[in-house]
Amino acid sequence: MQLLNEQEIERRKDRESLMQLGIDPYPALSYPINASAADIHKNYENRKNDYKNISIAGRLMTRRIMGSASFAEIQDSSGRLQIYVRRDDICPEEDKTLYNTVFKKLLGIGDFIGLKGFIFTTQTGEISLHVQELTLLSKSLKPLPVVKRDEEGNVYDGFTDPELRYRQRYVDLVVNPEVKDTFVARSRVISSMRRYFDDHGWLEVETPILQQVHGGAAAKPFDTHHNALDIPLFLRIANELYLKRLIVGGFEGVYEIGKMFRNEGMDRTHNPEFTSMEIYVAYKDYNWMMEMVEDLLGQIAQAVLGQTQAKVGENTIEFAGPYRRLTMFESIQEYAGVDVSQMDEKALRAVCADMGVEVDDSMGKGKLIDEIFGEKVEDHLIQPTYITDYPIEMTPLAKKHRDKPGLVERFELFVNGKEIANAYTELNDPVDQRERFEEQLKLAARGDDEAMAMDEDFLRALEYGMPPTSGLGIGIDRLCMMLTNKSTIQEVLFFPQMKPEKKVQVATDDDFIARGIHPGLVPAIRELNIHTLDQLRGQNPNKLFNDVCGKRKKLKLEAPNPTKDEVENWINGA
RNA sequence: GAUUCCGUAGCUCAGCUGGUAGAGCAUAACACUUUUAAUGUUAGGGUCCUGGGUUCGAACCCCAGCGGGAUCACCA
Predict the structure, then answer these.
(1) How far does the CA of A418 sit from the C1' of B76, in Å?
(2) Which residue, A151, A239, A266, A351, is most buried by CB atoms nearer than 10 A?
């Protein structure tokens, strides 16, 4: 049961009327299509002879009715096409019902229709379809927001409320064409990335989403339970440790593009489920990986934008490599003016205090350096920049630097002040790896709730031997944000997570009748804005009695007035 | 999680100092055979987010809640 507004009631009546005319509003059929709106606009001028028998389908989006002729627009997945509908063309016989009643009165904006006819150019120069045959394919019962655009492309009655746009993305996609463009771009980002990896011979794989140990990253997981095994399970926060097991197993290049789940806060750059790409290639190190990433991102930008530059907010980003490389210590030296490379924890805390960087007691040396970096450096890294050689404490899965003690071979790629990729020369020494996990356990004991958990099976795999390997992770959503110039993650996710929509449980007529209300009085109850049984229960009996009798008179209802006792019984449910 | 702004017709938004709820588009009716933000005339459409409070009187003031945006914190 739902409350219908005026326009929804009207459309339901139209649906009934169509059926009475013998027209199925939802016919079961295949409608053959031989052209799209975009194809017609692109090719009609040069190949006019090919557009004399067009069959096309789409959603009716506007109508301009002028007596016995009308202009309208339909929208298919490629765009819009103006159609010209003339009464005597679609109704060549005596009976003009199809035009006068069906097209003019019973169809509405949002309905799917199929059309046959020929393409021509109107006096005002618009390429249009002259309709000879019209078929209703699906009736729309809810009114679409009507977005108007003038010749300059100015939008007049936009569908702009972010809440409605995200909750009803289907409507957003119908009326805001640039939204569709964003998601087409997203799809191209992923497909061009996949093509790049496949062309290099690396294998796309799938690893468990339901995991018994949530490893590979520092984050809070979603937990669930498997009934048959009676064990707790977690949605993965990362897939790194599984992909490395596959390298142990003998694959020389594996990658996975998939959803990760983190039970943390949400904002314009975080959604509880997000898409990441992780790739591991054997016999490589992080220097090789930096060159690969430059090549990859240049090619993706080219595939998505047709060029390697992207406008992101105020900035123009050049994705073609090579990218600038800075060690973490160099970057802090450059942007914060401090050499932290030789500092111990105490000295670092003093530096943080100096700079007004907030810290707490659970933070180790690595975390403190990361805080300084985040506060002072990140925002400056606009053009793609590799930050390399991180402190060992904050990177338990990366190999120790080949000649810089206390550091690991890791880089992060920053673009427009945001991290979009993270890569290591992977740690493959099982003894070192066990020690690193143990260090993490100590951090956990100290209060760091993001410290990584020990994964014994992963250690066992490493003990069998993993070749030297470089691994990379890219946040797909953020990459898409950059390449589509969007500032929120919601704009690149079809269905971003939202708080539940509050749903009022509207009572049906039968619900009211079951409480003893005379069927003829239900309209009076609804007229009083009592739509749920809860609302009914909250009524004052005397007031309700008076109101119902008043409404009965006003609405001229046939049903007899209730007695006061009856009204009390409605409320008490007796 | 904190701060702050917002919630009025299907959509986009007005609504003065607290005094009978408004517009454009959409919808309905009539007219109109090349319009394109079609046009002209007319009509209907509201739980002013919800619940309390103040007041003779609340869309408006106060309190609480729900939902959303922005900023900040954490994380990718």
Answers:
(1) 10
(2) A239
A60 close to A16: Cβ distance less than 8 angstroms: no
Quickly give A108 CA vs B27 C1' distance in Å.
10
- How do residues A141-181 score in pLDDT, each as one tens digit? 999 998 888 777 777 778 989 999 999 999 999 999 999 99
C-alpha to C-alpha distance for A504 and A523, rounded to whole angstroms: 19
| Rg, chain A, Cα only | 32
**Which bases of chain B are contacted by protein, using any atom under 7 A from a CB?**
1, 9-13, 24-29, 31-39, 44-47, 66-76
Closest of A114, A117, A119 to residue A51, by C-alpha: A119
Total-model pTM: 0.89
A99 CA – B22 C1', rounded, Å: 36
A1 pLDDT above the threshold of 50: no
**Residue that has been written with the tokens 């059929």 in this structure:** A29
Contact A483, A418 (CB under 8 A): no
> For a pLDDT cut of 90, what percent of chain A falls above it?
63
SS3 A338: coil
Distance between CA atoms of residues A186 and A483, nearest Å = 8
pLDDT tens per residue across span A394-451: 788 999 999 999 899 999 999 998 899 999 999 999 999 999 999 888 877 777 666 7
Q: How far apart are CA A331 and CA A70, in angstroms?
A: 66
> Nearest nt (C1') to A108 (CA)?
B27
* DSSP-H helix ranges across A337-470: 345-355, 365-376, 430-445, 456-464
Q: What is the pLDDT of residues A78-137, one digit of tens each?
A: 999 999 999 999 998 888 899 999 999 999 999 999 999 999 999 999 999 999 999 999
HEC letters along A220-270: CCCEEEECCCCEEEEECCCCHHHHHHHHHCCCCEEEEEEEEECCCCCECCE
Q: Which amino acid is at A474?
A: I
- Nucleotide closest to residue A220 (CA–C1'): B75
Q: What is the C-alpha to C-alpha distance for residues A390 and A403, in angstroms, rounded to an integer? A: 13
Residue A204, both tokens: 């796309």
Q: Which protein residue's Cα is closest to nucleotide B40 at C1'? A: A66
* CA of A536, C1' of B45: distance in angstroms: 26
Q: What is the mean pLDDT of chain A?
A: 89
User: Hey, what amino acid is at A307?
Assistant: Q
Q: Are A427 and A397 in contact (CB under 8 A)?
A: yes
Confidence (pLDDT) at A365: 79
Copy the structure tokens of residue A507. Answer: 């009572």
